[in-house]
Every structure is written in structure tokens, then in C-alpha cells.
Task: structure prediction
Amino acid sequence: MTHDRPSKNEDEYFARRDAELLRQQHAAVVRAAAERERKSHHMKCPKCGYDLITGEWDGIQIDQCTHCHGVWFDAHEAQALMKTSTPNILGRVFRAVAKGVTRR
Ligand SMILES: [Zn+2]
Result:
């Protein structure tokens, strides 16, 4: 009889379970690191790394870098700009941005 010691199957079961737990822990650590990395870039200028601020010019929301003054539009804002019937809206927005740079 083998009741007084764990069977080989039992050992294999626990080894597999431990390996699976380690794999899951590792995956969670990797996910958390990727999430931290992503968050560290949120509202940061892709060009110089300084903070972006959101402002509204002519009803169009624009994210602008507080350092290099680069401007970014969300996809739907860019589309709204293209669809607007206001003449030369792009020129108006860019002139307003250039005038107002980091002030609202
Ligand atoms: Zn910048």
C-alpha cells in the first residue's frame, strides 16, 4: 500500500500547480510593469517628454506641449476639423494656438 506517502501523481500535480501559479504571478508582474510604463507616458509630449495641456481653440480640443509647443489632436477632433464648414478653420485654430501657446 502507498497511503503513507504521496503518490508520484500527487507530486506531479503539485509541481504542475506550483509551475502554473508561478507562471500566473510572472504574467501579472509583466502586465503591471507594462501598465506603469504606459501610464508614465500619459499626457506627455511624444517629442520631448514634457507635460501636455489640453486647451480648446475655436471649439476644437488640442493637446499642446508646455515645452516645445507641439500640438496634437485626437482622431475625432482632427475629423471634426476636416468636416467643419467654417472657412479656413485649420488656419484659424493654428493662429489661435500660436497666439495663446500655453495660456488659455
Ligand atoms: Zn514637447
Notes: The two ends are 83 Å apart (CA to CA). The mean pLDDT is 85. Residues 52-100 form one domain. The first strand starts at residue 52 and ends at 57.
